[in-house]
Amino acid sequence: MNLFRREMKASRKSLLIWIVGIIAMVAGGMGKYAGMAESGDSMNELMADLPKTLQAVFGVADLDISTPIGYYGVLFLYLLLMAAVHASMLGANILSKEERDKTSEFLLAKPISRDRLLTAKLLAGLVHLIVFNAAMWASSVLVVGQYAAEGESVAAPIAELMLGMLLVQFVFLSAGFAVAGAGGRPKRAVAISAGVMLLTFLLSVAVEVSGSIDFLRFLSPFQYADAAEVIESGLGLGFVLTGVAIAALCLFAAFVGYRRRDIQV
Amino acid sequence: MNIFWYELKAYRGTTLLWTASLAGIVLLMMAMFPSFAKDADAFREVLQSMPEAVMKAVGLQLDSITSLIGFYSYIFTYVTLCGSIQAMHLGTSILSKEGREKTADFLLAKPVTRGAVFAAKSLAALTLLLLTNAVFFGAAGLIATAVKIASFDFGIFALITLSLLLIQLVFLAIGFAAALLLPRMKTVLPVTLGTVFAFFIISFIGASTGDGKLRYLTPFQYFDRSYIAAHGGYEPEFLIASAVIAAVCLTYGIVRYAKRDVQAT
């Protein structure tokens, strides 16, 4: 419990900075919608006729950018990118920092098992994700709601999108955990974790531009919460299961690997 | 000179990896150009049946985006994103690692002035970026020639590719300044990724409406590729803006590096 509390305190400041960033991004991004809304309609009809690969280039996918929620969907990819950066760095950092700061000797001499140590750190990481997600959720509902027409419900699709974001965050946190816990190079763990995240982001862009390599979508968590799809029909069960399976696998690797690893002191 | 060679060697692996990934992105994305161009052709036929006003509004844009230069401009966004991370990481890391790895007293006890240390380090960083760009330029040129359907203007292609170096130089200078602004930095990556992604997302928000003022805020918008394609040159005011940012950061770096307290253990 002490360890959990310590972790919560240690990254409090950075979490606060992230939350300020989230609010600025949501408010700033949707602020642009006001200007778009008038000219959106005729543009939108035309966009719908574009081939899928061209839509990807314009960044609209199947979204109706003349509605607030559709415009938010375009913005969502970038919010998701923020969440992924946060989660992948947090997951790797929370574990690998002990070795980097040469405090692992101190920590591991405490009378707790490595499993409990990992559990406490994982819990702290999860709470961070949830706080991050809640901040995103609240600011999105508030800001998008401002632009919504009378009687139009934006809360439901945003809720679905946020669950998708939480899934993506969870996958990247677990991946970072696995890299730092089971990998042999704790000093590079954060870099590797962020590198993997960036790679899957580029893969996601490639999938959208190409339009013909859809089977690769399962390899990139960014595709699990594809805004157009989620707003249209909710989260895909296949993606949720894949995401949870990848996360579970990563966590399993982290626990098993960390239990028997040499810690550099 | 010793410091210069030492740094070149220290960052050899990382730079190779970055160069390979930058070329990899171009290869991955440009490989999709032929099928993309075919899609665009089909759509252009659909456009023929549209009213002339609509065609004028979109057709022009479509023509520029479906050409090889247009497609390359689009994917170049992601190249600059990765390139900026490389540059800022290099700049921050090369100046701050002595403090982090507790080798500062060793380095500064050598019979060289701090100015000379700074000069050697920044020259090494510059050389690494120049090498990255030289290799990248060659690779991108080869790939573009391989996938082209019609001939394209190589001068404009070269200008766009060269803008990577200019953006990288701006971020390198920002990295220098960041290293000295935050002397107690434990890891470089969070600061780097935070800064670069923040600029990247601001750039997206600015681009979606073409807001003129907002463009000054983010180096990603300094070298507008549709402007380069149309005018065959860079926008002078933004060229000046990037020079000013780089000069301010560099001056701050030189002055601060010569005076600051160095933590030695």
Automatic annotation (TrEMBL), chain A:
Origin: domain of life: Bacteria
Gene Ontology MF terms in the entry: ABC-type transporter activity
Keywords: Membrane, Transmembrane, Transmembrane helix
Regions crossing the membrane: 15-34, 69-92, 122-149, 161-182, 189-213, 233-258
Pfam families: ABC2_membrane_2
GO cellular component, one term: plasma membrane
Name of this protein: ABC transporter permease subunit
Species this protein is from: Paenibacillus arenilitoris
TrEMBL record, chain B:
GO molecular function: ABC-type transporter activity
Domain of life where this protein originates: Bacteria
Residues spanning the membrane: 71-95, 116-144, 156-181, 188-207, 238-255
Keywords from the UniProt entry: Membrane, Transmembrane, Transmembrane helix
One GO term describing the cellular component: plasma membrane
Protein name: ABC transporter permease subunit
Organism per entry: Paenibacillus arenilitoris
